[in-house]
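Convert to structure. Protein one:
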Amino acid sequence: MRLTALLAGLGLLLGSGAAGAEAVAPEQFEAMSEGRTLYFTRDGQSFGAEQYFPGRRALWRYEDGACAWGRWFPRDGLICFDYEGGDGAQCWTFEGDGTSFSAALIDEGGPTGLLLRMSGADTRPLDCPGPGVGS
């Protein structure tokens, strides 16, 4: 799926005529991400990609090529991710305005300053090393 089609779908989820960015609810996030791979940047530089599976499972691929399996879940209006071998759940606010989509990391009730922007989306599996991981 092309980024423009995904963003258009996100715009429909948020409603037309919305002024400014609006929070993406967990149900909206699930509808726009499941079965897709989303690509993220930080400060204009590639940051990583995540492939989303049924059952709110996810596979994150770091820029160095390492991958981590995890799951996502809603918590207190945020979308949280917990990865195998990680340090516990990381929670994010996802926002979109129909033309752009971003995710801000939240810790201890406030933003950390880490802001990711979605730079692309498709349905290709991630290229991850190891048996049973990605393509």
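Protein two, convert as well:
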Amino acid sequence: MTEIIYTQVGDYLLPNLQLNEPLNAEPLNRYGMMRKRFLKETRPAHYGKMLVHEELYPHCREVQQQAQERIDTVMEHLIHRDPPPDKATDQIEWVAHMNTLHHTAEEIIFFELIYK
């Protein structure tokens, strides 16, 4: 069994804890943060367990990687199914169409990955 070493701070004894994960690890992007917030707000016991066992951030990074890959795949499929107008002749319509497709792809991954 590992002995826990404490440091006295004022009247309190605080355990000397260290994270196994380096602090300079890849930061969470939008999708990883959304997954983390979802777990924290809707499944607090599971969130706490994952946090204590240092599984939360690797899980969120995995979800964000899957989300980005899935968005790319869905966007390709949506563009193939509903091609955008010519960008050279109608840039505003092209941007509006691509934004609509991107929002559609995000709604799909929110349902499939983030909020499940």
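The CA atoms of residues 49 and 55 lie 8 Å apart. The chain has one domain: 26-114.
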